[in-house]
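Q: I'm teaching a short session on how sequence maps to structure, and I want students to see two examples side by side rather than one. Could you give me a first protein with its sequence written out and its structure tokens following it? Keep the formatting plain so it prints cleanly on a handout.
A: Of course. Example one:
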Amino acid sequence: MTTVSENPPNGKKRKPPRPAKKSPKLRAGSGVPDLLCYPHTGTGNAERLVAIFGDRIRYCVEWKTWLIWDGTRWKPDRSREIQRLAKYTIRMFYAMTARITSPSQQKETQSYARLSESAKSIRAMLACAESEKGITVSAGEFDRDP
């Protein structure tokens, strides 16, 4: 996963983006959010996305647009970055299924993770994520003076 610098090249410190208000549950000692703790639903997938990328994504209701933090400012997502982040989230979720000790539960969770990679499931995840706490923003919250 690529990290984004929060300081511009001129060396001046900038405030980081507002973090998502919900803290992800972390696996003991790993620093990686526990993606297995969420339900097998579109909303659960949205919560997984926010757990991983909540500090880098926002959804502006008035503009009906996803915004991505580029390290300096919030930019409208014109390159479908949000789609790539959603797919990455599901792939991380699938990878975590290897930790499940019950063979039947592991098989069920892997099956759900595979289904979650469909275009329909990705759209559902993003639709649910639009309203997650800390993700929805108003156009008025942005400084229009560069």
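Q: Perfect. Now a second example for contrast.
A: Example two:
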Amino acid sequence: MRVALINPPCFYQFEPSLGLCYIAAVLEKAGHEVVIVDKPINTVVGNLSPATISEAFDANFKKVIEEVLRTKPDLIGTTATSHTFYALKLLGILKELLPEAKTVAGGPHVTFTADDVLSKYGSVDFVVRHEGEYIMLELTKALEQDHSLEGIRGLSYRRNDKIVNNPDAPVIEDLDALPYPARHLINLEEYPEETRVTLASARGCPHPCIFCEMHQMWRGYRARSVENVLGELAYLVQKYSPKRISFVDSTFVVDRDRTVRLCRGIREKGLDFIWSVLTRVDHHDRESLQEMHKAGCRIVYLGVESGEDTTLSTIQKGITTSQIENTVKMMLEIGLEVICSFVINWPFETMERAEATIQFAKKLKSTGAKIQGHMLIAYPGTEIYDNMEKFNLTPKYWGEELWKVLGQQYLPGESIPLLSNNFISERQLSKLWAEITSGFDFWT
């Protein structure tokens, strides 16, 4: 079967889609002909006008359509996140041009909104929920052999004008059994040199933060063996000579001893490369951080979220401001570049608590950390999304209108407050955001 997998174009697309590369690898191994249609937009937005930005987006959108048409696929798949929900519009255009092709959408957003997607978008034939590799493999087999879809766990579809959600597929326990991602199907040179090579050493996160969908998307936490990860690292270093490898695990350090073994393995194998991770502040000690640094880790992204302990407790982050300060201090002393991410407009957050977060962030910045700021978004699959009233939140946009707004977040200008927590007015949020854009290093 000929399969086209689309990574929808969007701004700030600094890394290729590892998820599509994994699916492509599994399908290729089974003998299918696969292409990944990937047209990232690497225009630096800066002070460009909205019209210029829109032109760049439309041009890449058109390139995707043209490449899919040249491929003439039997099955068209796309990932559709909350920020690239317009991918479903793209499937609609392609369905009109290639009416015989079947279409499938996957990713965190559609996993938790499958009924809504299938009821509103007739151009979407199937939704793959949660991990897609083996579900896609079964789907292609069923379509090729004209078999029933009933036995494909994790698949949603329409039958006799009714939506059918098959039972969830089991999680992929043995991640080592998956082939390495099919990076050869992507032109990595279209991505920034520092972020074009990525690796996932694990899936999921064991922490139930109320604002993050990763715990529900991956249904817990599973790690690849150290040996398997080292094998892929050796391959990447030999194949691409990367300037940097970005570990894209939701939480890199969960098992401290595994981290140490991985770092020592990198050194023992003589793998010389710089790498970065996303992690938490509560899974580290000085020895493990030193091992990471000696093995080439130079950049650590920390999701600290708030600089106020009451808020940290409300969002079930499981850390304290004292832990944040101590860990950031330790990382900086060891020689790591530390980037701390904060969010404002949390449930029950008052103006005073939000101001405390901004001042706490500036305090960390004064010690040498870099600071990133965000406005709260309620993503499908999160406890916040499912319990707005419980958390005293009122959405300014909802459903399809919300996803349309999120799809426009690449445009310059003020961040759009998407939620009201009934304790901070929109005028006060604008004031807080002005403080972030003037005092932080990054903001989105």
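Q: What should students look for in example two?
A: Point them to this: The two ends are 40 Å apart (CA to CA). Also worth mentioning: The mean pLDDT is 93.
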